[in-house]
Structure formats: C-alpha cells, structure tokens
Amino acid sequence: MPTIVWDEAGTRQYETGVDHGVLYTPSALGVYENGVAWNGLVSITESPSGAEPTALFADNIKYLNLYSAESFSATIEAFTYPDEFAQFDGLASPTPGVVIGQQARKTFGLSYRTKIGNDVDGADYGYKLHLLYGCQASPSEKAYGTVNDSPEAITFSWAISTVPALVTGYKPTSLIVINSTLVDAADLTALEAILYGAAAVEGALPTPDAVIALFPGV
Q1: DSSP secondary structure letters along the chain
Q2: pLDDT tens for residues 134-179?
C-alpha cells in the first residue's frame, strides 16, 4: 500500500464563484422548460436540513440511532432577476407596467455553475453544475435606501424551499451536482446543450433520471 502524501501538486483544490444561472418554468405536465438566463447572481447558499438522530436505548445501552427525513433549502441573492421570476415571487401583472403582489407562488427549477480551482490551473481547473428541482420562493424583504456619497446597488434575496423529485433506485432528491473533472466531456456537453438550449431549442431542466442516463460512466 503506497504511503499517503499530502498537498501534492494539483491536489490542492477549492471551490469559488457562482454564474450561469438559469430559471426554468414548469409546463402543465410538470416538465421544466423555457429556460431563461438569471443575470446578476451574487450568491446561492445551499442549506440541507433534517437527518437529525433520535437515540433509542435497549438492554441498558444505546441500541441505535434513527434519522429524520432530510430536506433541502437554499437562499438566492442577486442584483436583479429575470422578468419570468415574478410569477414565482408571488407577483402578477394584470396589465403591462402594473404589478400586484401577494399572489400564488408557483414552483420552478434552477441551475447554476460554481468553479473548481487548484494550485496548478487556478479557478479554471473545472466546475460543478447544480440542478435544483421543486423550488418555491418565500416572501422576502427588499430594503431601498437613499443615494449618498457611497452609492450601492441593492441586492434582492429569496429563501427557497424544495419538494424532491423522484429518482429511480434512490430516494427523491431536490439537488443534483455534476463535477466536470469527473465526467466524460461529451456527456457534459450533451447535458449543457439541454440546460442552455441549442439552435432553435429552448433550454430545459431534464428529470433526475434523464440526467443520470446521460452519464453512463466507463
């Protein structure tokens, strides 16, 4: 068995950044389609929760742990958002230029990219694609302030909860992550053509089963 070596060249990896955000609208059949670019992303914070242990005792010892169901939520912060997001933020437009709030909040899909860096290639080493399913945005605070001698653009923020999508052979999930450094480049290109659109075809968010089928491995 080889000796363990720490901090070899190319193994000092890190993650950074967020870009290539895409918002997807569900069809009447629940298919995420009509992908539109989400510009101005500042941060997306992924917040899994649950999976909390409950200790059970028997025979005067700790017998086992039972874990609660796990859920997934996130927080999106951005300088702006696509017009198509209004319907997911509880807004409706009865006539052009007029918007009313406190409407039903619809479910949407989301994809975005984060970078993987290392000590050799920097932040261009690779990236991860994050695919989110069954997202719903909660009402959020918007703080408008006066323009002064230190002007700042306000940021919008939304708390996102999710309902997991079905995955054959696994528990339902709200999140799939694809690592560009570990998958076949042609398979990754095929997925990105679906996510971002190609020629006259609009971008779409494929089901978890369809995503997995694109990456058969070696």
Answers
A1: -PPP--S-TT---EEEEEEEEEEEEE-TTS-EEEEEEE--EEEEEEEEEE--EEEEEETTEEEEEEEPPEEEEEEEEES---GGGGGGGT-EEEETTEEE-SPPPPPEEEEEEEEEEETTTEEEEEEEEEEEEEEEEPP---------SS-----EEEEEEE-PEEETTEEEESEEEEETTTS-HHHHHHHHHHHH-BTTBPP-B--HHHHHHT----
A2: 999 987 777 788 888 888 888 899 999 999 999 999 999 999 999 9
